[in-house]
Prior knowledge:
Helix content: 40-55%
Structural class: alpha+beta
Strand content: 25-35%
Shape: globular
Distance between the termini: 57 Å
Number of helices: 6
Strand order of the largest sheet: 1-8-3-6
Amino acid sequence: MPVNPDSLLTLNVFCELDEDIVKALAGILIEKAVPSGTHLFLEDQKGETVFFIMEGKVGITRKGPDGGPVELYEAEEGDFLGEFSLFESGIRQVTATTKEDCQLLMLRRKDFLKFADRNAVAAFRFAWEMGRSCAEKIRGLEQILMDGFGRTLESKA
């Protein structure tokens, strides 16, 4: 079933794009319902797909010193995960697991690269928006880390 381009406008990464670009991108996205407790991807696994969360929550964890999972943050509606896999075929640094039933859109790297071959300007604009959104995400995570670091220093004083 094709993805409704209007539904993409609920995601910040698509909001600044021209309508024709959003429609073209909708043609390469895959919609998927995922039950709670499902691993979307695992740490140390090769990444090939970006996930956009339309509904639900996803826990992001990383192996701790004892080998058990340490929750880093919780992604929710409007967030995206695995964005580096769009630009490089690297290894995942975290694990993403649904915390409740989720409605996701998936963009596979191979589909995006084919799209880019046919629609260079649209692919560039989307990649630019992804980069901008990634920068915002990193700044938000930096703040979380700094807040935690400040609490750690206060507790030691």
